[in-house]
Specification:
UDP N-Acetylglucosamine Acyltransferase, domain 1; binds acetyl coenzyme *A; Rossmann fold; 2 domains; alpha/beta
Length: 218
């Protein structure tokens, strides 16, 4: 990666990405875009502050890559809209992979994917564009994770799971093997998903059922 970087956003997710960019010894972040005029965060000291999205035109798409530092929470489309806005202007996004993550050589990570610290992504898994695989998440083998997903901290995605676009897997949630989760689903924090989930659903909680194993196999 030889182009300089421009950070979109200046909140918590952007600060974590700034740490990773430093650890990875990537090219410098030459500017950040944030509407916040009273912003006072040491992480961005000395870096050009662009207050409006349109100010990006000070940098040619030929010279910079963008890093989407806007975090992702359920029911918030802001991050995705910004991606579309900048793509339409011809800008491309950097893919950031923490040096403290384990990513299989056979995994495929699309443009703009962000893999944070202590993530594991196993063999033959694909992660589509602009998805965040957040701190400590596990994505097992042969998964197909959709675009603009957020796998929140410590989410566990077992093997052969498919997710549609815009899915949020909440922190510490578990999806068992072979499940399909359709687009725009929210899996709540700590939930365990054992059935396929239809689009635009919210999944809460975990229902433990106790079945006598002897009777089960009679
Ligand atoms: C680096 C970072 O910090 S990344 C951030 C990671 N964060 C996450 O992944 C959070 C994911 N979000 C959640 O789990 C949310 O609670 C959601 C999206 C599932 C639900 O949000 P909302 O629809 O706003 O629900 P709301 O907060 O109004 O709660 C409604 C009820 O459901 C309960 N509830 C909410 N979330 C959950 C959950 N994950 N599991 C069980 N119950 C829940 C609430 O306690 C509340 O119950 P009550 O009426 O008895 O008090």
């Amino acid at each position: 990666m030889s182009k300089s970087l421009v950070m979109i956003g200046s909140g918590g997710h952007a600060c974590v990405l700034m740490d990773l960019i430093e650890q990875l010894e990537l090219p410098p972040v030459v500017a950040y875009v944030s509407p916040d005029v009273s912003f006072n965060n040491q992480v961005f000291n000395g870096i050009t502050h662009l207050r409006h999205d349109d100010d990006i035109s000070r940098f040619s798409p030929d010279d910079v890559l963008l890093v989407n530092g806007v975090g992702s929470l359920p029911n918030q489309a802001h991050r995705q809209k910004l991606c579309q806005f900048y793509h339409q202007l011809g800008y491309q996004f950097a893919t950031i992979i923490s040096p403290n993550s384990i990513v299989s050589k056979s995994a495929i990570l699309a443009q703009g994917v962000q893999v944070m610290n202590n993530v594991v992504i196993q063999a033959n898994t694909r992660v589509n564009a602009h998805t965040i695989v957040n701190t400590g998440a596990i994505v097992e083998h042969d998964c197909d994770i959709g675009a603009n997903n957020h796998l929140a901290p410590r989410a566990t995605i077992c093997g052969n799971v498919t997710t549609g676009a815009g899915v949020h897997i909440g922190t510490s949630a578990t999806v068992i093997q072979g499940i399909t989760i359709e687009q725009n689903v929210i899996v709540g924090a700590g939930a365990t998903v054992t059935h396929n989930i239809e689009q635009n659903s919210i999944v809460y909680g975990f229902r433990s059922q106790v079945v006598n194993r002897t009777q089960q196999h009679e």
